[in-house]
Amino acid sequence: QVQLVESGGGVVQPGRSLRLSCAASGFTFSTYAMHWVRQAPVRGLEWVAAISYDGNNKYYADSVKGRFTISRDNSKNTLYLQMNSLSTEDTAVYYCVKRGECSGTTCYAPKYWGQGTLVTVSS
Amino acid sequence: DIQMTQSPSSLSASVGDRVTITCRASQGIRNDLGWYQQKPGKAPKRLIYAASSLQSGVPSRFSGSGSGTEFTLTISSLQPEDFATYYCLQHNTYPLTFGGGTKVEIK
Q: Which of A25, A50, A121, B100 is a plausible cystine mate for A59, CB 3.0–4.6 Å?
């Protein structure tokens, strides 16, 4: 069964950096694009970033562009999110999300989400 | 960016009520839309994909409809376990965008 396990969250001061990891299992990681989605306390869901199956294409929300970097290591079945210049606005639960399944040229909304890891940016 | 306008932001309903939630996209997204249910402290759970396809294992009282810019999630007879927050997600174009959410509360 598909498992996505995030780690690396914690409390960090504004302006500092943090790297999140997501260990994937139960599917062929190297053939799926992956996403990070976050949810600030008592707020809605916000898509953060995506990476293609081979790591060659990356996409970012405007709110994190230039500060966050998504990457992957297919040999380790692991997705990463390097977060620099953190601000209080980045406080959220960060979810690792597997691209939805595809049928022919049509792909569907993501089904599998990790349990999330909490990042708190506070002085 | 494609904006997803979800309404209402909250509603109060009784067990057995029919509930309808709407998402409107700022431009056409074909049927590249999913609906999710989220309960406190949990990750979102996919209910509907491709705008109207019911996720396996999800009760048939949930249904989705729409294409292009107007989408609807309907719960035909609200059950106690359905009290939660619901989100739509468009995955037609990056950046992916979510609706603002609809909190379904007990009347």
A: A50
Contact A62, A55 (CB under 8 A): no
Alpha-carbon distance of B9 to B85, in angstroms, equals 9
Residue A122 contacts residue A11 (beta carbons within 8 Å): yes
| pLDDT per residue as tens digits for the range B12-42 | 999 999 999 999 999 999 999 999 999 999 9
Span between the terminal Cα atoms of chain B, in Å: 36
Query: Cα(B49)–Cα(B35) distance, rounded to whole angstroms?
Result: 7
Cβ density class A22-56: b for 16+ within 10 Å, e for less:
bbbeebebeebbbbbbbbeeeeebbbbbbbebebe
A81 vs A33: CA distance, rounded Å: 14
pLDDT tens per residue across span A69-119: 999 999 999 999 999 999 999 999 999 999 999 988 899 999 999 999 999
Show which residues on chain B lie within 8 Å of chain A, measured between beta carbons: 1, 32-34, 36, 38, 43-44, 46, 49-50, 53, 55, 87, 89, 91, 94-101
